UniProtKB/TrEMBL annotation:
Signal peptide: none annotated. Belongs to the ROK (NagC/XylR) family. This is ROK family protein. Gene3D superfamilies: 3.30.420.40. It comes from Nocardioides astragali. InterPro entries: ATPase_NBD, ROK. It comes from the Bacteria.
Length: 304
């Protein structure tokens, strides 16, 4: 077991806009228990959901959980103050919410709060077995968590890793951030759902299945999407130059076909540039194992 996963027993909560996923890690880093519940909106809903998940984890392990709990949430997090703001997906807007202290009171244990992509990066670092790791989250949006020399890099305003808001297409769609042609308008779950709408299965799974079956329109959409992901990795490679790059997020549930297509696009980007090709970005890329609760595990590592 990777040393970064091992240690004392640990508890992590990944609080998302649709679900809250909780895990208990054993001393060897194995997942002893995990619970998933739908997240109720608003501050009161988030607290109630976290409480239900924590109680269910205690029931599953058969013992009180008294260790500090790590919590990952979307939005801007003031780590020092334990405050959350502008977490639109959670129904938390406007004034700063002292979520760390509210959760500590609700759960009856100490809590440490962090952005969800950042905590996922901690688990990605453990999976990759490296101290310089970029975790690329391709979910509803597109963002990266940065671990440099074994430490999270948040940035002066908590905006480090907001790779999705790098504009790449002046003639592209308007992004939710107010800019035009951002990577997130091409390489995100939200963008993919617009480009390949479906009702019977997740859009990413439907798109990759159709492309594999030879649907020309699906191949075009898939290739543009994977070009966008590869372009994000190229920017991160040229600015951070990490030892390892790990793909995760909801779209990564496609699994190895996603990694293979992104690798193909990375190699295509390097065909006209010996310099870019020499960086070997494709060889540094891995993907989170399917169904692995990377953000919840990362939150547990944070709490530990």
């Amino acid at each position: 077991m990777n040393a970064a996963l091992a240690g004392t027993r640990a508890v992590g909560l990944d609080i998302g806009g649709t679900k809250t996923h909780g895990v208990v890690l054993g001393e060897d880093g194995e997942i002893l228990a995990q619970v998933r519940e739908s997240t109720l909106p608003g501050a009161d809903g988030v607290l109630a959901t976290a409480g239900r998940v924590f109680e269910a984890l205690q029931d599953a392990t058969g013992a009180p959980l008294t260790c500090r709990v790590g919590v990952g949430v979307p939005g801007l997090v003031d780590v020092e103050r334990g405050v959350l703001r502008h977490a639109v997906n959670l129904g938390v807007n406007g004034d700063d919410l002292p979520l760390r202290d509210l959760l500590a009171e609700r759960l009856g244990v100490a809590v440490v709060l962090e952005n969800d992509v950042n905590v996922a990066a901690l688990a990605a670092r453990a999976l990759a077995g490296a101290d310089d790791v970029v975790y690329v989250s391709v979910g509803t949006g597109l963002a990266a968590g940065l671990v440099i020399d074994g430490r999270l890099r948040r940035g002066e305003h908590g905006a480090a890793g907001e790779i999705g808001h790098v504009p790449v297409d002046p003639a592209g769609s308007q992004c939710g951030c107010g800019q035009t042609g951002c990577l997130e308008t091409i390489a995100s779950g939200g963008a993919l759902a617009k480009a390949w709408p479906t009702t019977d299965q997740p859009p990413a799974a439907a798109l990759f299945a159709a492309a594999a079956a030879g649907d020309h329109a699906a191949v075009v959409v898939r290739d543009r999407f994977c070009w966008g992901v590869a372009s994000a990795i190229r920017v991160l490679g040229l600015t951070i130059d990490p030892e390892r790059i790990v793909l995760g997020g909801g779209v990564s549930e496609v699994g190895e076909p996603l990694r293979e297509e992104v690798v193909r696009q990375l190699r295509a980007l390097g065909e006209g540039s010996p310099f870019l090709a020499s960086l070997g970005l494709a060889e540094r890329l891995s993907i989170v194992p399917r169904h692995y609760p990377v953000a919840a595990v990362g939150a547990a590592i944070l709490g530990r």
